[in-house]
Amino acid sequence: MNHRVPHENLIMAFTGMHRMRNIARSLLGRQGFPTPLGNVTPEPHRSAENEERRKIWETVQPYTMVPEPAIDFLIDQVITLLTSRVSGVLVECGVWRGGSSMAMLLAQQAAFGRVERPVYMLDSFQGLPPVTAKDGPLASKWQQGADPENFLDNCRAVREEVDHALARMGFVPGDYTIVEGWFDQTVPRLAEDISPNSIALLRLDGDWYDSTRCCLDTLMPLVSEGGVVIIDDYYAWDGCARAVHDYLSSHDVAYRIRSLPQWYGAYFIKKAARDRFDVL
Ligand SMILES: C[S@@+](CC[C@H](N)C(=O)[O-])C[C@H]1O[C@@H](n2cnc3c(N)ncnc32)[C@H](O)[C@@H]1O
């Protein structure tokens, strides 16, 4: 869940940084984001990409609470991972109305003319589970209805509406698989189903500690070396940040936590060890 904007005084501080980043990006082309391979030289199809990006955003906006810069980042990652042949499927845990997963499908279609890697879409379709103490006081207040405008029926979505929207966009089962149920039940089954194949991109958007931790514990072993893990709620909720820190420290790995543009989430690249000085 990323519909909350940063605190006002942070916005003022970030506006300057954002402007600088935009200037840098317009000078460098779309090379602003570190990728598993460092700064990848733009492919020829990228000049036509801005128009495609805008179309993708307009298509998915009604189905997502994720803001445009984070969708833009997701599109970049999908195209880069596939272009650089990082193996595996694409997985989103916590799809709500499906907009982010739809962006992963549309990005493939726009860049490669077809869906090359299926997208697995996991959700309870019953909204968020109850918060626990690890999720922190803000999450607890939110779930008690302190922010009615953004409560969105506790993030409940209707699965049939997701199916219909995907069909209207022209996607067929096989392009995507919807996995309905609570993560503690569905994620271990998914891991069995897709193993020994791997995951190229894992997008976690389940908000709470338990939801995030369960996905990391079970799915991280399947993420390819060089694969990308996006954690939508890292800045939004204490429990999500805790889950990421607990997972990384308990597995003694050195993945760097990186921020999405405008702090709309975080991500890391699965890489056993830093092996070059010239690539971040
Ligand atoms: C913030 S919404 C996801 C937003 C979505 N990715 C988008 O593009 O707008 C969080 C979703 O995670 C799901 N969720 C959270 N914890 C879950 C769990 N333990 N099992 C299944 N679904 C869960 C909720 O049902 C909800 O639809």
Structure explained in plain terms:
Strands 3-2-1-4-5-7-6 form a seven-stranded mixed sheet, sandwiched between helices. Helix 2 packs antiparallel against helix 4 and helix 9 packs parallel to helix 10. By secondary structure, the protein is an alpha/beta fold. It has a single domain, classed as Vaccinia Virus protein VP39 (Rossmann fold). The longest helix is centred in the first third of the chain and has 21 residues. The two termini are 28 Å apart. 38% of the residues are buried. The protein is globular, with a radius of gyration of 18 Å. It contains ten helices and seven strands. About 12% of the residues have low confidence. Helix 9 links the parallel strand 4 and strand 5. The site of S-adenosylmethionine (SAM) has 22 residues, from helix 4.
What would the keywords be for this entry?
alpha/beta; Rossmann fold; seven-stranded mixed beta sheet; 10 helices; 45% helix
Describe, in short, the structure shown.
It is built from ten helices and seven strands. Helix 4 links the parallel strand 1 and strand 2 (119-123). It has 280 residues and is an alpha/beta fold.
Strand residues, percent:
5-15%
CATH fold title: Rossmann fold
Instruction: Give the uncertain stretches in residue-range form.
Output: 4-37
Instruction: From the alpha carbons, calculate the radius of gyration and give it in angstroms.
Output: 18 Å
Strand order of the largest sheet: 3-2-1-4-5-7-6
CATH C-level category: Alpha Beta
Mean pLDDT: 87
**What's the CATH architecture name?**
3-Layer(aba) Sandwich
Q: What compounds are bound to the protein?
A: S-adenosylmethionine
Residue share in helices? Answer: 40-55%
Element order: H for helix, E for strand? HHHEHEHHHEHEHEHEE
